[in-house]
Design brief:
It is a single chain. By secondary structure, this protein is an all-alpha fold. The protein folds into two domains: 3-65 and 204-216, no CATH class; 70-181. It has seven helices and no strands. The protein has helices spanning 3-12, 14-19, 22-31, 36-64, 75-119, 125-181, 183-216. It starts with a helix and ends with a helix.
């Protein structure tokens, strides 16, 4: 019986199968031409197919195993963890400095803009000239201060770059150490998976022989 017909027939008696005992279930199947041997073949085919899928999964897992690294708590790892944490904290600190400088510049620009607009409101020219002089002097001092801030901000970047280089160097050495430590485990796993695949191949071969025998008899 074709597979699609069997599937349709199985769906047609699904209620009986779910609610009845084994005898009722088999009787229902037999009424539509599906016998125990047909069900058995289907089950064997499903098992065979699942074994093939499992083989592919294990092969894929073996190929990707090298990228899955479990690192022991070595001195190198401790050094990397500490340096990495310090680098991240330094990046955060540098970003905060830049944000604060940006805020200083924003507030200063608003202040000078307001000051300049308010100067226009003076009716006393002497007071106005005095305020304008103070504004010019304050702008000069602010410009020097802001320039110093921006220079300090720029000087942080080479330090962070060097810091990052050292963190990456430690990380890559740690990776090399970790992968090296997995070589023996990988060989053992490779052997175990090869044995498993061979056993599955034997089971698949036996399943195919059984299916062929059942269908030919």
């Amino acid at each position: 019986m074709p597979a699609f017909f069997r599937l349709s027939s199985i769906l047609a008696v699904s209620v009986l199968i779910l609610t009845g005992c084994s005898t009722v279930k088999y009787s229902a199947y037999e009424k539509i031409g599906i016998h125990k041997r047909d069900l058995l073949v289907d089950n064997v085919e499903d098992t065979r197919d699942s074994q093939k899928e499992a083989q592919e999964q294990f092969k894929d897992a073996l190929e990707k195993f090298g990228s899955v690294v479990t690192i022991e708590e070595t001195g190198l790892k401790k050094a990397y963890d500490r340096l990495s944490d310090e680098y991240e904290d330094s990046v955060d600190a540098a970003e905060e400095v830049s944000e604060n400088i940006d805020e200083v510049e924003e507030v200063a620009n608003d202040l000078f803009r307001e000051w300049g607009e308010e100067i226009k409101q003076y009716t006393d020219q002497n007071l106005r000239r005095s305020s304008e002089a103070k504004l010019r002097d304050t702008r000069v001092r602010y410009k020097d201060m802001l320039g110093s801030m921006r220079d300090a901000e720029k000087s942080m970047q080479p330090v962070l770059a060097t810091f990052k280089d050292n963190v990456l160097f430690l990380k890559h050495n740690l990776n090399a150490q970790a992968v090296g430590s997995l070589q023996a485990t990988f060989r053992d796993l490779q052997g175990d998976i090869n044995i498993l695949i061979n056993q599955m191949n034997q089971s698949i071969d036996r399943s195919n022989e059984f299916i062929a025998g059942m269908k030919g008899s």
